[in-house]
């Protein structure tokens, strides 16, 4: 008997895979939503890459509904996304479009899933970025997309958002996550300031259990120094 039902949107990325591993070890039923399957998940919903925003939403909503067979989930965790640099002088619309697809499409579809399938008191967690609390001139498209995730989170955490009763909408705002790819591209960085993926997965687990929950609509920055991570709630 599974101890909970979790949906991870972006289950093939580094953080998504870490979340799936964590919740499978906790004996949860886990569905992964991504462009590719995660073989650790109980159910994989493969998003058609070239489909429109609406087509992707219709596909994911239908597939998850079929998998759940009338049951509800305890959490929808959206850790899909990506990064692209660039300012206004080069490829701004191209970079912004890519960031919108990776962060906003996935976050909005996750919100729709929450409205339909989240249990009362459940968790929807999105992924913003601490950098997007201010101007991001070297990565304008990225900053725009993450700022929109922050706005979506605040809206979902407000009255009449369409989410189930007593649910919690929150966004994590990482600085740098300690992933294999980040270590590859930034080998000279100070890893003691990077947030471990296991910390984030455990944080989601606490919130699902109702422990140490921030206020609804909170933006929770993850600030790591000397291998210790503090939560700075906006």
TrEMBL record:
PROSITE patterns: PROKAR_LIPOPROTEIN. The keyword Oxidoreductase applies. The keyword NADP applies. Coiled coil: none annotated. Its EC number is 1.5.1.34. GO terms for cellular component: cytoplasm. Pfam families: adh_short. It catalyses: 5,6,7,8-tetrahydropteridine + NADP(+) = 6,7-dihydropteridine + NADPH + H(+); 5,6,7,8-tetrahydropteridine + NAD(+) = 6,7-dihydropteridine + NADH + H(+). One of its GO terms (biological process) is tetrahydrobiopterin biosynthetic process. GO terms for molecular function: 6,7-dihydropteridine reductase activity; NADH binding; NADPH binding. Keywords: NADP, Oxidoreductase, Tetrahydrobiopterin biosynthesis. Belongs to the short-chain dehydrogenases/reductases (SDR) family. PANTHER family: DIHYDROPTERIDINE REDUCTASE. Catalyzes the conversion of quinonoid dihydrobiopterin into tetrahydrobiopterin. Homodimer. This is Dihydropteridine reductase.
């Amino acid at each position: 008997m599974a101890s909970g039902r979790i949906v991870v949107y972006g289950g093939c990325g580094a953080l998504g895979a870490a979340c799936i591993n964590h919740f499978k070890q906790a004996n949860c039923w886990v569905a992964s939503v991504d462009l590719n399957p995660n073989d650790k998940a109980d159910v994989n919903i493969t998003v058609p890459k070239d489909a429109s925003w609406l087509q992707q939403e219709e596909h994911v909503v239908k597939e998850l509904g079929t998998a759940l067979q009338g049951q509800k989930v305890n959490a929808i965790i959206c850790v899909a996304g990506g990064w692209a640099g660039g300012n206004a002088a080069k490829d701004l619309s191209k970079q912004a479009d890519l960031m919108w697809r990776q962060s906003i499409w996935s976050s909005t579809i996750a919100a729709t899933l929450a409205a339909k399938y989240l249990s009362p008191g459940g968790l929807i967690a999105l992924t913003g970025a601490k950098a997007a609390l201010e101007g991001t001139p070297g990565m304008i498209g990225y900053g725009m997309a993450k700022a929109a995730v922050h706005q979506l989170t605040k809206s979902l955490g407000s009255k009449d958002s369409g989410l189930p009763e007593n649910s919690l909408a929150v966004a994590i705002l990482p600085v740098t996550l300690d992933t294999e790819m980040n270590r590859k591209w930034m080998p000279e960085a100070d890893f003691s300031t990077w947030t471990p993926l296991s910390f984030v997965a455990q944080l989601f687990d606490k919130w699902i259990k109702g422990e140490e929950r921030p206020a609804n609509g909170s933006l929770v920055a993850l600030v790591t120094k000397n291998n210790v991570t503090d939560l700075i709630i906006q």
